[in-house]
């Protein structure tokens, strides 16, 4: 996949280390919105940190253990979707996602995830696709629901959030058979 259209001039396409300037700009615009749920967004500031973050993940992609795409409006990066876990042995993967606040509410994330899951299930033979979020992250759990996932359960105090508090994590999932019947 080099580029997948999402409508209205938006597209899902690669997000590579050489996009560090666009990624740093994106984080400056979106940091206050996404960092309460994604603590790394608070730490990655400036182009050098953005470059290192992208390079670290590019190495994991070479190992087929991580895959990442940007949501672009022309040359402006407005979001990202990752398989933050891509386990080809157990055939389990987990999606992570973020958007710039001004482009929420138009289905960009749901459409991107549909394309990513189609690829994972149909082309890569993944059997289980997970989505993890804090119970309080209403917009995030709504994406999981819109994708037809079911709530497997809640991991108690599974993460430390930006404020340093332990927070629960809901685990949502859909299995390959369910995705194909969807
Ligand atoms: C989680 C996040 C990506 C969800 O963004 P979102 O815009 O709500 O999700 P989508 O892009 O799928 O858009 C869905 C909305 O668009 C609407 N929509 C319009 N057209 C649509 C379409 N064709 N398909 C699906 N939804 C559509 C839906 O009704 C929904 O609107 P609502 O919020 O009023 O119910 C975003 O809130 C975010 O980045 N949050 C901060 C970071 C974060 O929490 N990441 C997840 C960590 S677990």
Q: What does the model show?
A:
The chain is built from six helices and eight strands. The chain has 182 residues and is α+β, with helices and mostly antiparallel strands. The chain has a single domain (3-181), classed as Aminopeptidase (3-Layer(aba) Sandwich). An eight-stranded mixed beta sheet has the order 1-2-3-4-5-6-8-7, with helices on both faces. Helix 1 (20-34) crosses helix 3 (47-62). The radius of gyration is 16 Å and the shape is globular. The model has no long low-confidence stretch (mean pLDDT 97). Bound molecules: coenzyme A. Coenzyme A (COA) binds at residues 33-34, 37-38, 97-99, 104-111, 133, 137, 139-140, 143, 146.
Quick structural summary:
With about 180 residues, the chain is of the alpha+beta class. The protein is about 35% helix and about 35% strand. It comes from Stackebrandtia nassauensis (strain DSM 44728 / CIP 108903 / NRRL B-16338 / NBRC 102104 / LLR-40K-21).
